Amino acid sequence: MPSTGPASTLGGLARLRDGRSGRASSWDQSGRNKDYWLIAPGSTAVLADLEGPGAVTHIWMTSFCRRVIGPSIQVPELHADVAPVTEMENAIGVNWEINDPDYYRKVLLRITWEDSGKPAVLVPLGDFFGLGHGMPGSYNSVPFSVSSRPQEEGTFGGTASMNCYFAMPFNRAAKIEIVNENDLHVGLFFHIDYDLYPRPVEDIAYFHSSWTYANNQGWGDDIAVNTPEVNSVPNDDSQNYVIADIRGRGHFVGCNLSVAHYQGSWWGEGDDVIYVDDFDKPAILGTGSEDYFNHAWGMQRNASLYSGTILHEGDTGGYQVSYRFHIADPVVFNTGIKVTMEHGHGNHLSDSWASTAYWYQELPGSDLTVPPADERPAPKKTWDRPRTERPALDEYQRAAAESYRERWRIQQQQHAALLRRNADRTAPAERGNFEQARAARASYDRTRNQ
């Protein structure tokens, strides 16, 4: 009998499989080339609403969110029915727009299995794919890959192509949503690839992901790492940064960690301390932060299939993003797991940390929460700009300034109308994806029963 279920290895490709593949996407259902959804502030878009049994096999996304600072010399209506090419290049002196620096943190990815009242995934969009701090960095791993243009790597809100290959099976239903908690519209191109199965998946483990953020308070952040004074202090694990705290049965399959390091010496040396089933005594104790991420003597500028660096602090002025995936070595737990790490040896450093955890679990949902949107953005370094007094304007300068302000007022009105027009396309597109998915399920079941 052909097999049913996710098969992501090369060996699995040599076996016939039952099922049928499908996709929910942002394609322009009018047949034109406006292949993105515009998601309004404070709204939620349902990207895929699938009927099981089946599995999500691949997620691809790219997004944009621009904060317009001043008027363009272009007329907004000219871009009403074309692909947003101006999102790719902000022409110097033509458009005055910037990537919104915080939207990757203020927009959430939410996934729910089996119509559960609790989500299995609730993570800021960027962090889910490894865009820590809201900064893209190109990397390739087994479950995730990101490709960003060189000029946008390591910039807040820079554009990127984002992929996830974690297998996500479900037996009755799957819903994938984007929750826009930002104050701006967000444009999203996406593919949700999935397989439909003829029968339920036995011994199913549901994919989960959560996000944690903390401004760690250390006891000695004015003392350099690896000094005799720091190394002489025994650790109190109760003060460790918590990457994941899970109850139930399943297996932990990895995380990414974003660190904004303030001191300037070295953010690491903190051991990984993992409690498995017994929350009084750790089962797994590591030897240093970089060791957990499978590097040594600090983090290097390289990335591999299961671990490595996405952004290196030496290239970004103190922003580091690292990852470790337990694909060949999942951490199995029966009643729960708590994954922690020291922020500096003995928790002596005061840095901002954020992490995304990934695991599979017996139950379809978890008690997941995230901080309010305004508390999620990464800390920024700002210019200390000197204040100077503006000179008095002559008649030509006054006329130019007044003309600019009037043109900006008119363009803001036009731009607001254009945003409403484009956002109004999203709800019909959601219905179209829903109907397409239901038709695919019915067609497959009909063919299978003939």
Characterise the protein shown here.
The chain is an alpha+beta fold. The chain has two domains: 18-202, Protein of unknown function DUF2961 (Jelly Rolls), CATH 2.60.120; 206-361, Jelly Rolls. It has seven helices and 24 strands. It has helices at 103-106, 125-128, 228-231, 289-292, 313-316, 395-423, 426-449; strands at residues 20-25, 37-39, 44-51, 54-64, 66-70, 96-99, 107-113, 121-124, 139-140, 144-147, 161-164, 168-170, 173-180, 186-196, 206-215, 241-247, 250-260, 272-276, 284-285, 307-311, 319-325, 331-333, 336-341, 352-361. Strands 1, 2, 4, 9, 10, 11, 12 and 14 form an eight-stranded antiparallel beta sheet that branches. Strands 15, 17, 20, 21, 22 and 24 form a six-stranded antiparallel beta sheet that branches. A hairpin with a 3-residue loop joins strand 9 and strand 10 (144-147). The longest helix has 29 residues, at 395-423. It is flat, with a radius of gyration of 24 Å. It starts with 19 loop residues before the first strand and ends with a helix.
Number of helices: 7
What is the CATH level 1 assignment of the largest domain? Mainly Beta
Domain tally:
2
Percent helix: 10-25%
Amino- and carboxy-terminal Cα gap:
18 Å
CATH superfamily of the largest domain, please? Protein of unknown function DUF2961
Q: pLDDT average, as an integer?
A: 92
Cα gyration radius (Å): 24 Å
Class from helix and strand fractions: alpha+beta
Main beta-sheet annotation: 8 strands, antiparallel
How many strand segments?
24
The name CATH uses for the topology of the largest domain is: Jelly Rolls
